[in-house]
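Here is one such protein, fold included:

. . .
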Amino acid sequence: MTTQATSKRTSEGLSKGLSKGTPKGAWQITFLLFLFMVVNFADKIVVGLAGVPIMTDMKLSAEQFGLLGSSFFFLFSISAIVVGFIVNKVPTRWVLLALAVIWALAQFPMVGTVSFTTLLICRIVLGAGEGPAFSVAAHAIYKWFPDEKRTLPTAILSQGSAFGVILAVPALNWIIVNHSWHYAFGALGVVGLIWVAAWLALGKEGPLESTSAVTADEPRIPYRKLLTSRTFIGCVAATFGAYWALSLGLTWFTPFIVKGLGFSQSQAGWISILPWVFGATIVMLTGWISQLMLTRGFTTRGARGVLGSVPLIVGGAILAMLPYAPPGGIMIALLVIGSGLCGSIYVVCPPMLGEFTPVSQRGAIIAIYGALYTISGILAPMVMGNVIQHAATPIDGYMTGFTINAVIMVGSGLLGLLLLWPNTERARLTGTSQPAGTIKGAMSPT
């Protein structure tokens, strides 16, 4: 059997798979995985939301609280890589179930009296369980949607982060204000177990791109080539800056509202929702615009690469204005808009990687991508804590920390514009063009 014949058979298999459209049940799975990400981000936000009560009760310094925020990411990247390779062989249904069980169990020790060390360990364990979450969920969804229909479900999946905060913050803040921050952790553990029960009953493995004829015939690309491709590097660089802003929001936004701007814990709970509401709008708009651009003949360079990178640059420029704004509403607005714009990059990067990565290697590549960009989650909270600790006043420290964030966002957005060329990546890596019909105009750079 010649290489040409194999390539032809692979193309025919892919085209045939695409012609089937979206399988029945795809949107049900999308909704369940959306809820999966809702729980994921509710778990993430609770430490930042309860930041002031935790620091007060446990007598933590800004540096210690920054360490607590960063501890969540200590095993985040390692776990993401390990599990990424596992899902190349193991059905995503069972991997997702195991991750959700870990999340739930990691919350319950905080219900009673807890030491700083125990809290730190539980956050590290939780981070290890949540590190692979988005990449495994994206890999699972891509087994239900052909390539040209993946941007919108990816956007919906990404929205789990925003809705996890929007839905959880009022409820968790009510528990914190009226009862105790300890019980907020317990409530999240119960919600996690409810999702586990729902997934056991309704979760399924997608019928597209399973380890069947298509994946058996597709050519493998050395991981060295995939990981050093300009689009992979561009995705990591661009999302690194976006995740810096996100991890600061998870850990330091509410303490900034309370200690930096003087709002009460109850008021700060509602204000903390604003970046996520705005971010949710940006993400959904990005998914819709990207899919519309693809149907109208734009290349994925424009409809994904440029569309995801430009908002990072604009958002960073807005954040850079923060130190010059008067404390209060204008400062909050700049922070909400500047950090919220970075959400676009999360929608477009997984589909871009999926364009040129063989199906049998996609789970690992998306996981490694996630593992690398989330390193900023380790750095950002600790940098902010250190800056605040050594600043003349807390507000000066916050302003310096957000300025650092602005510079990183602009730089990462510029790198994205320079490096994201997914529409030509497959041809460069394999020496062959994409199968006809996969993405309209995919081989013409904009």
